[in-house]
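Memo to structure team: turn this sequence into structure tokens by end of day. - J.P.
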Amino acid sequence: MQSRAVILERIFGRSLSVRENAAPIFRFNEARSSIVEEVVARVTSATKDPLYALSDAAYLEVRRLSSKGGAELAEWRSLASSLGRMSESELRETVAKYAKIYAWDVAGNFDPQVYNFASRAMAPILGALLSPRAMVKNLPQSLDLTTLDGRIVVQGPRERIRKLAETGTVVYVPTHLSNLDSVVFGFALERSGLPPATYGAGKNLFTNPVLSYFMHNLGAYRVDRRLRHGLYKDVLKAYSCVLLERGYHSLFFPGGTRSRSGAVERKLKLGLAGTGIEAYARTVEAGRPRKVFFVPATINYLLTLEAETLIDDFLQEEGKARYIIEDDESTRVGRVASFSQKFLGLDGACVVRFGEPLDCFGNLVDDEGRSHDSRGRAIDSASFLTRKDGSRGRDAKRDAEYTRELGEAIVRGFKKETVVMATHVVAAAAFGGLRRHVGKGDLFAMLRTKDDVRMPRAELAAEVARILGEVLSLEKKGEIVAAPGLRNRDAQGVLDDALRAFAGYHVEEVLSPRGESLLLSDTRLLFYYQNRLAAHGLGFDTLAK
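Reply from structure team:
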């Protein structure tokens, strides 16, 4: 049994490396006030019509708060009634006032000691976040970060990204499935030898005291998705832009929220992506160009913590997801503990795959950060910033088009770097059997079927073999990636792996053994997991419509 002193040494004993000390984020707290000041100044000066900006904010806030009452509602009502009597200077002062309030609320924090601890304690934080008994029982082993290496596999051009992080600012843009994603991605950065990144996290996540402590001290900035007015969005964009200009590597989920359907995102929210172009353009204008690189990435789970709530939300809204889910599996202690236990018992339970780095215009870049066109020819990325008068810098309309093209390149990267897991293949095979049983009909007709639909194991295994063959064929073309557990594995082995993963976590059984057949018990979850293959034509695709 190791002494308490030895255990504490394992947690806190590692000194920060030269690479870590060199990363701007390790000095973030020293610059926090100046970052907020710059954000406020930019938002205030860029607001062309302060009366409209404040009226918009007041109207939307009064509407949001009307059912709650309270001092905040009274404040916005008072502001709304007084706007017409304000002078131009008073309006701008009020814009600055609220921009400052929002900027301080958004602004993150970074504590190197907490990072040092989290880097060593990522295994218990992730694997037994809300299962303290399991953590205490095997404390010395739990503190070993390498225990997660077999559970979370990290792939992709990490050496190239490390080089880019030394010469420019890197923005990671991963797919988004779970509230665990930011923790999992932080693990991937640490194990890849990459510096930590700032990232936006929904303010609702800060209600969990454990998650809140780590997010608040590891660069997370708070995004209040309840606030939909332009002034707040301008603060968020300005904050992101200032961070990028100053060299703070960033992470944001361009899907905007977790994928309710389980599918890889094909439509992105590009507001924050546009700050990459703006940040680069501002540094070029200032005569100190600093390139901004985007790295698409996919986070792929054998099981998803919140799958049941997410797919229900998707189906109930007929594909129109609510902006935020207040209560799901990630807020329930028992479900997180159950997921953690299952997660730690499955090899390759998650694969984080970094894609090919892009410049902020969607072009591929090499190890030295040079941009290349579709034919592989080197190009000067700054030339994309040339304006009509020959100068180089920002141009709102032009840059909006570049942002759209960047979004398309990110979506292509998502599709190419999607990692297929056993649960995806088996769910696609089983859902195909459900479609054949029901015959013609829409999605909801299939999901509402009252019959006990069973598939003989041999038939399901044959369908798994067919889909697996198509996956491996697409992988050879560079259009998808097979998880390590799928290679050199026959169809029966893949089926067994999926059944083992499904068993014992979800509330309802997904596939239930019935002699030589399998009952398709939870058609919602079969639909959810098969959606991961829909964009590649390997599953039922309702999202292309």
